[in-house]
Design brief:
Helix content: 25-40%
Radius of gyration: 30 Å
Shape: elongated
Number of strands: 19
Strand content: 35-45%
Largest sheet: 19 strands, mixed
């Protein structure tokens, strides 16, 4: 027993000495002295200037802690002199057992505090992230607006492949990733519809990150709102055909399943919506909206080897429409050729508003298969497509409610000719063009009905002066 007790106390004493020595080493180790070497290598790999303000090692009950920050990655000089990415603080947990016993640096958790990312797309369609993606993919970077690639882009990419292979060998991936108070700015300089959009207050949780098993992703953020109004959750799977030691993200494909997005329209800021683009500055945006929007995507695939594909459903529930004037908002713009329309009194609609759209994404376009926006007084349906350039091609149908239709047709006799079999005013049309500059053209058969109404109810002068111009 004395021998066992002696061995026990000896092991404890040795452990205390080792632990004390490790603590002293970590507390006195000058991590900052290695920063110039680290930043030079990072800048070479990314082909961007990288700066790191401070780095320190520490120890806790959970293991070794590496604290770094601030970290700044410069933008491509062809785009802007502002930072591309800035992170105030990076906290990395390291597995002490793997470090001591297996001589392996293995991250256990990562926290990114207040990162800010600026994504820019030029008028030529080039993103400021292309050179970094090209570097990580191991291929050539796509030229920036000025066509500059650097002296030898392949040299940087080759160096990255070696370093990324080393990272996969000795670093692995953390199981827990947290991002707090992040912000993303997206600027699209496309001439037809430029955008300036911020998503802020982003908090991301990734649990049990893996390259072999699905992991849970949760996001909360603020977009077009002064308060958090967006919630996203999904299961994410990364492909498992990485080849070591030449692994890179150039052959990564990602599959997302059971994605749900929720937002509350009551928290939407109409001024921020109008500020998204100069093309939206003069549109009529309701100052008060209610209702909840949900997007459910059963399956999404995207990656460097496959284009984005998805299929899902968008739902609007518990919406409320207030003070919507059918006469001014619908009939006057669409059927202004019927002069009696302008003499109609205001006809306001108040009440519940709900909608549902099913869609798919492929060939760089969104295909709307079925859609329905509905109140008790009208419903609106559309089918068609919108591509990545916002070129829109939709077949639409607007039907007014039975009571509203009978009331309006009683005042304007010509409206009786555009009723369907259910005695509802039905207006089919084709919506086309580049958003937001869309052309709303009435369906050919509908225009024939209007022409018939004028021939029966209108004068010959109306037909000659108005009808032919309207329906030619």
């Amino acid at each position: 027993m004395k021998i066992i007790r002696g061995v026990f106390f000896g092991v404890v004493f040795l452990g205390l000495i080792v632990g004390a020595g490790l603590f002293i080493f970590l507390e006195t180790f000058d991590t900052d002295s290695y920063l110039p070497q680290i930043t030079r290598q990072a800048s070479k790999i990314l082909e961007r200037v990288v700066t790191i303000g401070h780095a320190a090692l520490g120890i806790s009950w959970d293991g070794i802690i590496l604290d770094v920050g601030p970290v700044v990655i410069a933008d491509d000089a062809q785009f802007t002199s502002q930072p591309f990415i800035k992170v105030d603080h990076v906290h990395v947990g390291l597995d002490i057992v793997s470090l001591i016993i297996h001589r392996e640096i293995r991250m256990t958790d990562v926290l990114l505090q207040s990162p800010e990312i600026h994504i820019i797309r030029s008028q030529e369609g080039v993103f400021n992230i292309h050179s970094i993606v090209g570097a990580f993919a191991g291929g050539e970077s796509k030229p920036a607006p000025g066509g500059h690639l650097g002296a030898n882009p392949r040299a940087g990419h080759a160096a990255l492949n070696r370093d990324s292979a080393l990272f996969f060998k000795i670093g692995g991936f953390p199981r827990w990733i947290r991002i707090r108070d992040a912000a993303i700015c997206f600027i699209d300089q496309e001439e037809a519809f430029p955008l300036d959009m911020w998503v802020s207050d982003i908090n991301v949780d990734i649990d049990h990150f893996s390259l072999t098993k699905p992991f849970k992703l949760s996001i909360k953020a603020s977009t077009l709102s002064q308060v958090p109004n967006l919630s996203v959750s999904a299961w994410v799977s990364v492909n498992n055909h990485l080849s070591f030691p030449n692994a890179s993200i150039g052959n990564l494909d990602v599959t997302i399943s059971d994605l749900t997005l929720r937002t509350d329209l009551a928290q939407l800021d109409a001024h921020e919506v109008k500020g998204l683009s100069p093309g939206l500055a003069h549109i009529s945006v309701p100052t008060h909206l209610t209702g909840r929007i949900s997007i459910d995507l059963a399956h999404v695939e995207m990656g460097t080897s496959t284009p984005l594909t998805a299929a899902g459903r968008l739902t609007l529930t518990d919406g409320v429409i207030e003070n919507f004037d059918i006469t001014q908002m619908i009939l006057s713009p669409v059927l202004g050729v019927i002069s009696e329309i302008f003499a109609l009194p205001e006809h306001f609609i108040d009440g519940p508003l709900n909608g549902q759209w099913t869609f798919s994404v492929h060939d760089s376009a969104v295909f709307i298969e079925n859609s329905l926006l509905q109140t008790k007084n009208f419903d609106f349906t559309a089918q068609g497509s919108v591509d990545k350039g916002l070129n829109t091609d939709l077949q639409t149908m607007l039907r007014l409610g039975g009571d509203v239709s009978l009331s309006l047709a009683g005042r304007v006799k010509m409206l009786q000719y555009v009723m369907d079999d259910n005695k509802r005013i039905a207006i089919p049309a084709h919506l086309s063009g580049v958003f937001p500059h869309l052309e709303y053209k009435l369906d050919k058969d509908f225009r024939k009905k209007i022409k018939k109404a004028f021939k029966k109810e209108g004068s010959q002068q109306m037909i000659n002066d108005v009808l032919n111009n309207f329906l030619r």
